[in-house]
Task: structure prediction
Amino acid sequence: MADTTLMTIPGQVDPVPVARDITPREDGRIDLIGLPRLRIRDLFAEAGLDPRQAKLRSKQVFHWLYHRGVTEFDAMTDISKNMRPWLTERFVIGRPNVSEAQHSNDGTRKWLLKTDDGHEFEMVFIPDADRGTLCVSSQVGCTLNCTFCHTGTMRLVRNLTPGEIVGQVMLARDALGEWPKGKMDFGFADDESEEAQAEYRADGRLLTNIVMMGMGEPLYNFEHVRDALKLVMDGEGLALSRRRITLSTSGVIPMMERCAAEIGVNLAVSLHAVTKPVRDEIVPLNKKYGIEDLLQACADYPKASNARRITFEYVMLKDKNDSDADAHELVRLIKHYDLPAKVNLIPFNPWPGADYECSDPDRIRAFSNIIFDAGISAPVRTPRGRDIDAACGQLKTSAQKKSRAERDREAAAASD
Ligand code: SAH
Ligand code: SF4
Result:
């Protein structure tokens, strides 16, 4: 694995190798994508600009990066012609490398991406009538080994950098052709070209929502996910409202409070079971952070974050977690903790070698009805992009798969 440091994080596999926040490049230049505005200013100053210039140039560059999506300093028409090569010598504007792009017959798109040091991860775009959702990865693989999840069987795990995380959103905008064209009118444009005089437009976008539900456990890569989402929410950055962003966690309780305070996006919690034995089996992290504590942390989340409600994700596994009694217990728990909650029922997406089957449609409907009858919304999510293995839990690159024995050993070690 390339240049990494170790960061102590709560969890059963501890520590996880954490990439530096900037992946070093062979040519020595620094990739600006993923860096906060003030860091860019400081880098410009360190490279020799006086403080006033560093401030002005960083503001201009930041705007070109995130509002216009340019990938060349030469395209920054309000920056003087001799300044542009100076920037090009020292900095780059990166994107994740695309190994493969696939299009499902239902419109879903999946990209297999690669970091500069050769790790593969995936991102998925799901278009709907009224919205377009980008499913973003936070790690290469996942250490948590949920038994129904394909990503959890990947041997290799590395946290993604803020640049690699926000880079997914940038790349999706590139692919969807969603950067506004025309004049960037914020005070210091000195460009007379036709393109610069055209109207600046940013409406009617396809990509409207972001879910941190790709590969990995985002709360095991908290700081990088936070820094990336700050750029996504920054009014001068990608300017997406935090109401349109959802972070999904399998229940890393110690990080949920920080998520509320420091990111404040909507939270989805992968509950998947209502009893200790079943959740211990399918979400092994439950042995460390149990259901009661998790639900209490969920009850605290909206107060601390201003998010309106929590979404519980519940994967429907035949004869495992899908009985009427399970549904009634789920309702009881939600009421007991007085949770402003919605439940998303996810039909299990099978993958080769998985030990589970999806519940029958009638069973899923009956389960959903019990929850709806108690006044709690419980829609059944339609699997999307199954033909290109882009559906929930199917994300797994060609990286080597762990053996069943290895997974059992890790699950046993986690319960110690
Ligand atoms: N690690 C985070 C986010 C990524 S997983 C988490 O677990 O919440 C995104 C969602 O897909 C989770 O709810 C996860 O439980 C679900 N999922 C994983 N494998 C699945 C499968 N095979 N079928 C259906 N949903 C699955
Ligand atoms: Fe990791 Fe989420 Fe998959 Fe569990 S469901 S293994 S936490 S990605």
About this structure: The first helix runs from residue 37 to 46. The domain at 30-92 is CATH 1.10.150.530 (DNA polymerase; domain 1). Residues 142, 144-146, 149, 151-152, 216-217, 250, 270 surround iron/sulfur cluster (ligand 2) (CB under 6 Å). The chain has two domains: 30-92, 97-415.
